[in-house]
Write a structure and sequence with these properties.
Structural class: mainly alpha
Oligomer: single chain
Number of helices: 9
CATH architecture of one domain: Orthogonal Bundle
CATH class of one domain: Mainly Alpha
Order of helices and strands: HHHHHHHHH
CATH superfamily of one domain: Tetracycline Repressor, domain 2
Number of strands: 0
Shape: elongated
Helix content: over 70%
CATH topology of one domain: Tetracycline Repressor, domain 2
Radius of gyration: 18 Å
């Protein structure tokens, strides 16, 4: 039937996301996406318009799921517990898989700045939303170190999540990454 997609869009975007996660934005080609999704290149172009559009759609779903998980992780009774839970969630997210798949948003921020301003903007939007989630949680929860500017603390937490993603790529273990996170949390809100 003309004009009706003959494939499962969610499954296609999930498979495309797997390719972008494994290969990165720059190294992923339309033939890679066609092979991984089982959808012909022409159909992908017709449905989405090209690699950047596919990435933006897949990344939008990834970002929404990640932010939902982050919000759930932050739903704790103290600032310390919320931040430790967030860091655990982030570390688990980019250390999962064998070999681990890393962090798509960090990888995209590093490599897509020159390739796709729209992908770069999508990452910035996601990180700004994460910062707002952290700030909102810190503002609503009891904790020590009231002299800490909570907006600045939220930005530092988000920055540290990106640094941990890079350290994970440099073969730091999840235990080592958690120790780094705990040091920061103790510095911000006490023990």
């Amino acid at each position: 039937m003309a004009g009706v997609r003959q494939f499962d869009e969610r499954a296609t975007l999930d498979r495309a996301l797997d390719v972008f996660t494994e290969r990165g934005f720059r190294a992923t080609s339309m033939p890679d996406l066609a092979t991984a999704t089982g959808v012909q290149r022409g159909s992908l172009y017709h449905a989405y318009g090209g690699k950047e559009e596919i990435f933006l759609r897949a990344f939008g779903s990834y970002a929404a799921r990640f932010l939902d998980g982050a919000a759930e992780a932050l739903n704790r009774s103290t600032r310390r517990d919320a931040l430790l839970s967030l860091f655990d969630y982030c570390i688990e997210t980019f250390a999962e898989g064998t070999p681990s798949h890393g962090c798509l948003s960090t990888r995209t921020a590093i490599e897509a700045a020159t390739d796709s301003p729209r992908a770069e903007a999508a990452v910035r939007t996601m990180l700004d939303a994460l910062e707002t989630l952290v700030f909102t949680a810190l503002s609503a929860l009891p904790g020590t170190s009231s002299s800490v500017d909570l907006r600045a603390a939220a930005r530092l937490v988000v920055t540290t999540t990106r640094g941990l993603a890079v350290m994970e790529r440099a073969t730091y273990s999840p235990a080592e990454l958690r120790a780094i996170a705990e040091t920061l949390v103790t510095s911000l809100v006490g023990s």
